[in-house]
Design a protein that fits this description.
Blueprint lengths: L7 E5 L4 H12 L3 E6 L14 H13 L4 E5 L5 H14 L4 E5 L13 H22 L3 E10 L12 H4 L1 H24 L5 E7 L10 H7 L8 H8 L12 H12 L10 E4 L3 H4 L3
Parallel strand pairs: 1-2, 1-4, 2-3, 4-5, 5-6, 6-7
Length: about 280
């Protein structure tokens, strides 16, 4: 306990999924949290986004650990909104930012997703991350940690199944791939201040982003009402280990390490939580 004691953390996409998991896990280790989310549906995403109640529940869970939580509503596609949310949130926690996790993301799936879904993926998953990082730069303390939310999709070459996944997935993969290069360059820019920049790259994570009707239908178009169990055998073929996905906690454990001073000289790293997926594909 106390691995990130008294650190101030900003997390976008904090209302549920990986964002909530990171917030609670970091609070358990002593951090105070600025939890940011849009809490409105995103056009062309293909599934419902988190609600105001979801974000408030994240804050409640953080406070239950004895740490402080500040809730801010903002669309990461809107630079001015993100800048205000970060500045106000950090100010409410006495100023200064120690850990930044621009986690907000969407994954429109399906062969019927058009170029609008492609654009939406890039707007949220790439532009939204850039907006969040750049809005936070004035607040980062020396020695801070920036943790980008990547994906093994960014490290794998395009495969035949991508056509089935549709334009939204192509935009998602492109966004995550672009962030790999961005992370490398940002690492060099911030290193003189001792600020670390790293990425976590999970395989499929058990969240609403992957557990929705659009995703199930993409993998099992042969079924009228496919379920999570119906797509499990397909997802299991991705990893070398006998798993269909990882949990949010699996990713959060890696995030805690990168947020803590235990990783004070770890920067420019792409940390894979993928059950051997890339190894299986000889990558």
């Amino acid at each position: 306990m106390g691995r990130v004691e008294n650190k101030v953390v900003v997390i976008t996409g904090a209302a549920r999924g990986q964002g909530r998991s990171h917030a609670v896990r970091l609070a358990q280790e002593g951090a105070d949290i600025v939890a940011v989310d849009l809490c409105k549906d995103v056009e062309n995403a293909g599934y419902s986004m988190a609600s105001n109640e979801d974000l408030e529940e994240t804050a409640r869970l953080v406070r239950e650990t004895g740490r402080r939580a500040v809730v801010k509503y903002a669309d990461v596609r809107d630079y001015a909104a993100v800048r205000s949310a970060v500045a106000e949130g950090v100010a409410e926690l006495d100023g200064g930012l120690d850990v930044l996790i621009p986690n907000a993301g969407i994954l429109p799936m399906g062969p019927d997703v058009t170029v609008s879904g492609f654009a939406a993926s890039i707007d949220v998953n790439l532009v939204g991350v850039l907006n969040t990082v750049h809005a936070s730069l004035p607040h980062l303390r020396d020695g801070a940690s920036v943790i980008l939310s990547g994906s093994i999709a960014s490290l794998m070459p395009p495969i035949g199944e991508d056509e089935m996944a549709g334009a939204g997935y192509v935009g998602y993969r492109f966004s995550k791939h672009a962030l790999v290069d961005y992370m490398k360059e940002l690492t060099l820019q911030l290193a003189p201040r001792g600020i670390r920049v790293n990425s976590v790259h999970p395989t499929t994570v058990d969240t609403d982003m992957t557990n929705n009707e659009a995703m199930f239908r993409t993998y099992r178009p042969d079924l009228e009402n496919p379920t999570k169990d119906d797509v499990a055998p397909i997802l299991a073929t991705l990893q070398a280990m006998p798993i269909t996905h990882v949990s949010t906690a699996d990713v959060s454990h890696a995030v805690v390490y990168l947020a803590s001073d235990e990783s004070r000289y770890v920067t420019g790293t792409q940390l894979r939580i993928d059950g051997g997926a890339l190894a299986r594909h000889r990558l």
